Amino acid sequence: MFISSFMSAPAKTVTPGTLLPEAREIMVSGSFRHLPVVDGKDILLGIITDRDIRSAFPSEVMDERERGEYLQRFATLTVGKIMTAIVTKLSSKATLDDALILFEESKIGALPVVNEVNQIIGILAINDLLTAYKQLFGLGVRGSSLIVVEDDGKPRALTRLTEVLESKQVPFTRLIRTGGSGWNSNGNNLIYIRIHSYNLSGINHALADAGFQPVVPAAQ
Amino acid sequence: MSPQKTLFHISHSRYLQHETDGDDHPEIPARLEEVNCQLQRLARTNQIICLEPCEAERRWILAIHSNDYLLRFEETALTGHSYFGHPDNRLGYYTYEIALLAAGAGLAGIDLAEKEPHATIFCSVRPPGHHAEKSMALGFCFLNNVAIAARYWQDKYQRRRIAIIDFDAHHGNGIQAAFEESPEVFYLSIHEHPTFSFPGTGYAEENGTGAGIGMTLNITLLPGAKDTEVQNAFTRQIEPALEDFKPEVLIIAAGFDGHRLDDMSGLAYSSMLYRFFGQEIAALGRRHCQGRVITILEGGYHLPSLGESFTEYCSGLLQSTEEVGKCSSVAL
Ligand SMILES: [Zn+2]
């Protein structure tokens, strides 16, 4: 559940004094879209994105003389001039949920990860988060299927449900109970379980015996 | 009155000896007893010729599975374990031998199809095969009967271009894995969407790898899908794809667990859909393959629906060209 298992570490970094052509080269050759900016002691100062560099780079539509002047200027510009001083970062103890919330709020594609003294220890891209959730959800692993039952609102629904699965020795990874207003036509919540078994018939019968109605999920 | 048609039914009495005891296992010997009962119904209007296969030779199995896997499988069966790999894959003392006999059915079917190109051939086997991978038993499957048959057809008869149509409710991950890099074997599967259904593979985006890109077609259906959606997919996607591919032979992985009464999937097919499959597949076989088509049983666990769907499928295969012409306009 911690981001530290899914981030890239160590992160490739630059300093405020790094010239833009060099930063651009690092990004292109390593296929990075974000570079954390640090001082000589690896303390995080900011971040620079491929987009920042693209906007500083002379445009193709300029005439030759103008473009030449811009190129000369680009060659002397440093990262410190165009970086974003960091406000959004993750701590080494952050969870996947922390990251999800931050990504959603900040609209940034990657977040630097720092230790207690603000030293960079890694970087987490949105794609790393997708990979983490894919694993957590048991996706792409051969041998699983999703069972959906209605939460009848009676006490201890999840206890009764897991009791059935565990007594039948059915391994499962994902268990989700929808919250809030009703998710199906009866206004009841649904419970989703990703089980690692093909004996759906046996499991359906056992769940029915325990009072659970299987639901056929439908797209809205 | 049209002349009597012949169905070659390849099966073995020993398939019933593959025991999966346990109170609730759906892949049981009674499945084939049900099929055998239905054969008698078919025999009222058709000639049925029953053939028993022999065990597939080890070299044909090794074209798909690893030697180490076969040794582990044999040892697990003979030493009295109740399952292999995962508790789903229950087995008994004879299961290894019987799995070799099940793989043998497809090979016998191919030998027959080569001698009698227009023969209608159905192999009723268990254990089923399409989830089994090179070194992994999965979903009640130990040896991949269909994949082994495809390699045999290529190697023994030089039929290089093979299309495999899999209409079981579940994705045949083992068949896909065996041929996903092959430009010569086209795997087409229509199944319940992998988000909901076992084994969680077979997304539409999976379309082959390397030289095999484009040679895997996964058509996914949402839970509750009915006949019309399948018929549309069949005529709009599967038939044009085969028109381009031009297979020399067809192998059908026939699973009947998409039936609405079968609770192993959320699909809601009627028995009549399987007649449609039979008719269309026979027509494809005539159009592209001079009638060289064999069908191998995969899933189907609700016994009455399995029996009825099997009968409808075979009846569809046996219908003559003129009759299909009349019916397909109704079916659509
Ligand atoms: Zn199936």
Structural key phrases:
heterodimer, A: 220 residues, alpha+beta, CBS-domain, Alpha-Beta Plaits, 2 domains, 3-stranded antiparallel sheet, 3-stranded mixed sheet, 9 strands, elongated, B: 332 residues, alpha/beta, Arginase, Chain A, 8-stranded parallel sheet, two-stranded antiparallel sheet, 10 helices, 10 strands, disordered C terminus, binds zinc ion
Description:
The complex is a heterodimer of chains A (220) and B (332). Chain A has 220 residues and is an alpha+beta fold. Chain A contains eight helices and nine strands. In chain A, a hairpin with a 5-residue loop joins strand 5 (110-114) and strand 6 (120-125). Chain A has two domains: 3-135, CBS-domain, CATH 3.10.580; 144-209, 2-Layer Sandwich (Alpha-Beta Plaits), CATH 3.30.70. The two termini of chain A are 31 Å apart. In chain A, helix 5 packs across helix 6. In chain B, the strands form two sheets. An eight-stranded parallel β-sheet of chain B has the order 2-1-5-10-9-6-7-8, with helices on both faces. Chain B has 332 residues and is an alpha/beta fold. Chain B has one domain (5-331): Histone deacetylase domain (Arginase, Chain A), CATH 3.40.800. Chain B is globular and about 50 Å long. In chain B, helix 4 (95-115) crosses helix 5 (145-157), helix 7 runs parallel beside helix 8 and helix 8 runs parallel beside helix 9. Helices cover 41% and strands 16% of the residues of chain B. In chain B, strand 6, helix 6 and strand 7 form a beta-alpha-beta unit. Residues 324-332 of chain B have low confidence and may be disordered. The relative contact order of chain B is 0.14. Chain B is built from ten helices and ten strands. Chain A binds chain B through residues 138-146, 148, 169, 196-202, 204-206, 214, 216-219, and chain B through 23-26, 86-88, 131, 133, 136, 138-140, 173, 195-201, 222-224, 263-266, 301. The structure holds zinc ion. Zinc ion is lined by residues 168-170, 255, 257, 298-299 of chain B.
